[in-house]
Specification:
35% of the residues lie in helices and 28% in strands. The chain is built from three helices and four strands, in the order αβαββαβ. It has a single domain, classed as Alpha-Beta Plaits, CATH 3.30.70.100.
């Protein structure tokens, strides 16, 4: 009886082995936020914190225009998560361009 149960469990486990793994290729996207940052110290704070978020590939902050441009892997993050990361630092952010 135990051999039958073990054989049935092994068959069930092996049935899943033949499934093909689906790989999702990363898609590089770019988003531009307009923010409430005022100075280079604000820009530094955003650079130091948001650039280490999962999926962020490149981040540029332009203080005079108050814009933050982020290139990111859309499989690992999204625009809402990145905006929340900026908001957590105390700066308002809204999407003005998304590619």
């Amino acid at each position: 009886m135990n051999k039958i149960i073990i054989a049935a469990m092994a068959a069930l486990l092996l049935a899943g082995v033949n499934c093909e793994a689906k790989t999702v290729k990363p898609v590089l996207k770019k988003v531009v936020y307009v923010t409430s940052l005022d100075c280079e110290n604000c820009a530094k704070k955003i650079r130091e914190n948001v650039s280490f978020e999962k999926g962020v590939k490149d981040l540029k902050v332009d203080v005079p225009t108050k814009r933050v441009t982020i290139s990111f892997d859309s499989v690992k993050t999204d625009t809402a998560s990145l905006r929340k990361s900026i908001n957590k630092l105390g700066y308002s952010a809204k999407v003005v361009k998304y590619e």
